[in-house]
Amino acid sequence: MTAIVVILLAMLFGAWLRLHGLSIQVVQDDEWHAIHKLLDSDYAGILRTFGFADHSIALTLLYKAMAGTIGLDEIDMRIVQVACGIATIGVAAWLAWRVTANAAITSLFAFLVAGAPFHVLYSRVARPYAITTLLVVVALAAVWRWKSRRSWTLAAGICALAALAAWLHPLSALFPMAGVLFVMAGDIGAARPERARALRSTTLLAIAAGVSIAAPLAAPLLNDFGSLSAKAGNSLPDLYTLFRMASLFAGGLADPLTLAVLLVAAYGAWRFWQAHRDLGGYLVFLALAPIMVVMALRGVWAHQGHTFARYVFPVQLLLLFWFSVGAIEVAKRFIARMAPLAELGVAAALISAYLWLNPAIVHVLTLGPWYGHVYHTFDYVLAHNRAALYYDRAAPPDFYRKLGAMPPGTAPIIEAPFSFMAPWNPLAFYAQFHRQPERLGLLHDLCLDGPRFGEPPRDPRFRFRLFVHLDDRAAVLATGARYLLLHRQYLNDRRFEASDRCLAALKGIYGEPIEIDERLAVFDLRRLDAPRKLQ
């Protein structure tokens, strides 16, 4: 009963971390892959292409259907990820309880997953990783069940889970296929009377799983194989990549603490293997085999710890589980005949330290619209965060310091243009200086030509709260913003060539800026004779 109560508490805590402030979190960077694709393609076009900027076929189809019915906003685009992230806490912790029957290990593991900043992050963004992780966990549990209880109902479930996970992200298929290969290896080593029948059934399962995985990917493989192949052979992951991955999985802790986590987890894996030889070996194989395959594939950007970690996301759960086992086992070494209540005390102390030391709670409470921006999440250790170091010793436009001198929340701003490509979007960096509410101004219909990148059209299908079209004076004033800021130098990854044209267009609507220099033009919206939205 204690373990069940703690699991539910961990899920409630995890739900708060994954939901708090979600409605004011800007849709940014990779989240736009799906939006761009659904705007440019019909259902058939989505179904048969990978796209060089991977839009996740299944997720994009879902978003297109949502856009055509209930519409898309900051919550709708992410609610499935949130639900899967919360469910993963409960499912993973319940599985830990089933195999250990230890309340302390289960409780520690549940809260480690609930408060893991990397897991919280991808439960809050419109990408497939939180969904695929849940599907993979359930599929791997089913594969292990298959080892002792073979039924075609179970096989059908494994195939369906593996196929959906692969459809969301092809690399997710590595995990269920690794699980099936491990069981097949065990069948080969089984006693002779059972060997042939067991091996035959698992071989059929492997074939069925492979066909199921390939089926939804057949159309894009035939029609757009070049986009998929272009993602391989471009990077060279190394030991530094693996350590940065481990740091992200361990909670973004300082490097010495990450090393300690790895040592305790290694001890936990060994102790668990001693107690459960087959299952312990299964879990080790599930961690190592996909990592080795992804290293061999050398996928695009896979040399970066953050990207590599996304590709092998389920390994995080194994690392945190092994750490939970190892930590309690270490405590038992120092305290002979430790009572269950004392074990729970150790777990509570470790949970408290973990949540204090990692950035999950602070990020959710303080980053507002820029939660999830690469500036904060490329690596949680500043010395390794290349996105943050890019701005080292950089200075914001002077007006941001003036905003910072005003009481927080008293001078809402609208900033334009919006660069959806996060590495070239400095607004998360500037936000540290002003502490004011933000919205993003859209310029395409006012002064830009060509394709619409990173801007939702003026369309009832898109109900994003944080975007406002700057050619709509009434809508701008209705936001209650005090200042409109036009950044004049860059738009995404290139020079903002239309800066002067956009400045002239904004002057025609909002009057002369109160401040202007080569970087920024500032319009005071209070001067306009128009009704303001009540605050």
In terms of topology, how is this protein built?
Elements lengths: L1 H18 L12 H9 L2 H5 L9 H11 L11 H22 L2 H12 L2 H6 L6 H20 L3 H17 L5 H15 L3 H38 L9 H12 L4 H21 L1 H21 L7 H7 L3 H20 L5 H18 L2 H7 L7 H4 L8 H4 L8 H8 L7 E4 L10 H8 L3 E5 L1 H4 L19 E3 L3 H6 L4 E5 L2 E2 L2 E2 L3 H12 L4 E2 L3 E5 L11
Parallel strand pairs: 1-2, 1-4, 2-3
Antiparallel strand pairs: 4-8, 5-6, 7-8
Helix pairs in contact: 1-5, 1-6, 2-4, 5-6, 5-8, 6-16, 6-17, 8-9, 8-10, 9-11, 10-11, 10-14, 12-15, 13-14, 13-16, 21-22
Could you explain the architecture of this structure?
The chain folds into 2 domains: 2-231 and 240-360, no CATH class; 397-527. 61% of the residues lie in helices and 5% in strands. The chain has helices at 2-19, 32-40, 43-47, 57-67, 79-100, 103-114, 117-122, 129-148, 152-168, 174-188, 192-229, 239-250, 255-275, 277-297, 305-311, 315-334, 340-357, 360-366, 374-377, 386-389, 398-405, 427-434, 444-447, 473-478, 499-510, and strands spanning 413-416, 438-442, 467-469, 483-487, 490-491, 494-495, 515-516, 520-524. It is globular. The two termini are 47 Å apart.
Binned, the helix content reads 55-70%
Strand order of the largest sheet: 3-2-1-4-8-7
How much of the polypeptide forms β-strand, as a percent range?
Answer: 5-15%
Low-confidence blocks of residues: 530-535
Major sheet description: 6 strands, mixed
Morphology call: globular
Helices and strands: which structural class? mainly alpha
Q: How many structural domains?
A: 2
Q: Please report the distance between the alpha carbons of the first and last residues.
A: 47 Å
Number of strands: 8
Count of discrete alpha- or pi-helical segments spanning 4 or more residues = 25
